[in-house]
Amino acid sequence: MTKTIKVLLIVLLTLMIAALIFIMVFVMKNGFVDLGMSDNDMKLVDSFEATVMETEKIYLDLDSADVKITDADADTDKITVKYYSNYDSSVTIENVGGTVSVDEAKSDKPKNFFHLKKRVEISVSEAFTGEYRIVGKSSDVYAENDLTNNVVIISLNSGDVALASAGNLFVNTDSGDVTVDKINKKTVIMTSSGDAAINKADLKGASEISALSGDIVISELNMKENVSITTSSGDVTVRKNLSRCYVETDTSSGSVSVDKGDRKSDIVLTVTTSSGDIFVH
């Protein structure tokens, strides 16, 4: 056995011993971790119900709970909020001054944090045209209902956002992907470390989409006012530009394939990258 192989074996053995020590210490402090827990292990912690007439805004102040928003039954005017968790957690759900708020306790420390799961489920009558404001430290946000008549404001430290449709949309996430099927009004999307993907963007207000280190893809774009798309180290792709606009591009070290559009138009699509490719057609 050569000296090099001996050294590698010693390093490998040292790493294995260190890993075992870490696991032993963690188990002593926290107990055994069941990584196989499913959503079925979550229990209803609290629930709340309000009518559309008495609700102007839905506000979620979350630590790490995920969010799922769905349509309520067609014949109801209710907004129902349910909070689930697989451990004893604390949450306050109430309606104060027309705002249905969900305030998740920030100091809870579960015994086995590897399998921690928390979720807020909101079923909303289609008659609700108020504002959604979602603030989270580590939360995924999923909405399958039609939000085109709402203002939606989402601010996350980390987490993905997936929406079926939105009207006025404002999203800011430090680490997460943003996916929207349809947008039909003003849009501001900013993600530091994640991709942004929009299937159909019919933008009726000045809009901005930016990704610090991610790709931006818009399958179909129709804009009525100026739009700015910016990424530092990602590609920008607009597969089908239906707008009567002029396209301005700026890239430091990327390739450009662009249909410049109508140079006389007052509406401008500005696409800027530092080290990414630009494709607009």
The global form is: flat
**Share in helix:** under 10%
- Succession of helices and strands: HEEEEEEEEEEEEEEEEEEEEE
Task: Provide the gyration radius in Å.
Answer: 23 Å
What proportion strand?
A: over 45%
Structural class: mainly beta
Number of helical stretches of at least 4 residues? 1
Outline the low-pLDDT stretches: 29-37
Arithmetic mean of pLDDT: 87
Largest sheet: 21 strands, mixed
Give the total of domains.
2
DSSP, total strands: 21
End-to-end Cα distance, whole Å, is: 62 Å
Walk me through this protein's architecture.
- By secondary structure, the protein is mostly beta strands.
- Helices cover 10% and strands 52% of the residues.
- The chain has a 21-stranded mixed sheet that branches.
- A hairpin with a 2-residue loop joins strand 5 and strand 6 (99-104).
Please describe the structure with a list of short key phrases separated by commas or semicolons.
281 residues; mainly beta; 2 domains; 21 strands; 10% helix; flat
Give the topology, please.
Blueprint (H helix, E strand, L loop, with lengths): L2 H28 L12 E9 L5 E6 L3 E6 L6 E8 L5 E6 L2 E6 L13 E7 L6 E8 L2 E18 L2 E15 L2 E6 L3 E5 L4 E8 L3 E5 L4 E8 L3 E5 L4 E3 L7 E6 L4 E3 L9 E6 L4 E3 L1
Parallel strand pairs: 2-6, 2-8, 3-7, 3-9, 8-9, 9-10, 10-11, 10-12, 11-13, 12-14, 13-15, 14-16, 15-17, 16-20, 17-21, 18-20, 19-21
Antiparallel strand pairs: 1-4, 4-7, 5-6
